[in-house]
Amino acid sequence: MTRAGGRAGARVEPSPLGAIPPLLLVPAALAVVVLVLPLAALVARVDWSTLAADVTSPEAIDALRLSLVTGALATIGCLVVGVPLALVIARATPRVAGWLRALVTIPLVLPPMVGGIALLFLLGRTGLVGQWLDAGLGLRLPFTTAAVVIAQAFVALPFLVLAVEGTVRSAGTRYEQAAATLGAGRWTTFRRVTLPLAAPGLVAGTVLCFARALGEFGATALFAGNAAGTTRTMPLAIYTAFNGSGVGQGAAVALSLLLLVVAIVILVLVRGWRPGSVG
């Protein structure tokens, strides 16, 4: 009786959804439908009997290999320059941090095609920097595999910087100040304190950066071109297929499904790495 009475008198926590007006649940459900139906249509269009053959065709394998290699290289490049930039933004004055954060955000709101044109005007044979690379080193970047990496890094860098910067900024400076008080140098503090603090954002940002690089299309098409085996990544192979040449449309649908699976895996990885406390 006592146990039953205790259960009966236990307080039931209200659902957070109870604070939302019921009328708003209708457009929320519609938004879910808008997100799910195109993905369901893609899965429904897959020819499962030829899926293995489509994914393992030479053209598809080349596009997949190139996407993975260039995506990995672009992500490494973003880590090298993006983590220091994220730390600077996180520890800068509000005014400086605001300007730098706005600058980092530009590739997110800029149409990828415009990014490709900007890179072409910067690094092309007659570009601002490209003309000097061509004249002095004989180095021509446009329409090469290196151009793919540069284009992917340009559009993917903000995902890494913003993720790391947000994590470090929210952690504050008390742990770093405590390490300095105990006599730790700047490099030791960075290695033993700052990096562990940034780890959740670093992992999430790296995964999102790689995913964005893997799906890059517009800047790559304009700056690197669409040459099979050299610059034709998976998104470009899908585009080429649906325009009637190169990879068959069945392979295009199969590669689209593969990108969908990669996106789901990335979502799972990101959800498993939430910013935590320092123990």
TrEMBL record:
Q: Where are the transmembrane segments?
A: 20-44, 64-90, 102-123, 143-164, 193-214, 251-270
Question: What sequence ranges are listed for the domain ABC transmembrane type-1?
Answer: 64-270
A Pfam family found in this protein is BPD_transp_1
Designated name of the protein: Molybdenum transport system permease
Q: Where in the cell is it found?
A: Cell membrane
Q: What does the UniProt keyword field contain?
A: Cell membrane, Membrane, Molybdenum, Transmembrane, Transmembrane helix, Transport
Instruction: Tell me which GO cellular component terms the UniProt record holds.
Output: plasma membrane
Chief subcellular location equals membrane
Record carries keyword Glycosyltransferase: no
Please state which protein family the record places this protein in: Belongs to the binding-protein-dependent transport system permease family. CysTW subfamily.
Q: What is known about what this protein does? A: Part of the binding-protein-dependent transport system for molybdenum; probably responsible for the translocation of the substrate across the membrane.
Q: How does it sit in the membrane?
A: Multi-pass membrane protein
Query: Could you tell me which PROSITE patterns the record lists for this protein?
Result: ABC_TM1
Q: Which organism is it from?
A: Agromyces intestinalis
Give the source's domain of life in one word. Answer: Bacteria
Molecular-function GO terms, alphabetical: molybdate ion transmembrane transporter activity
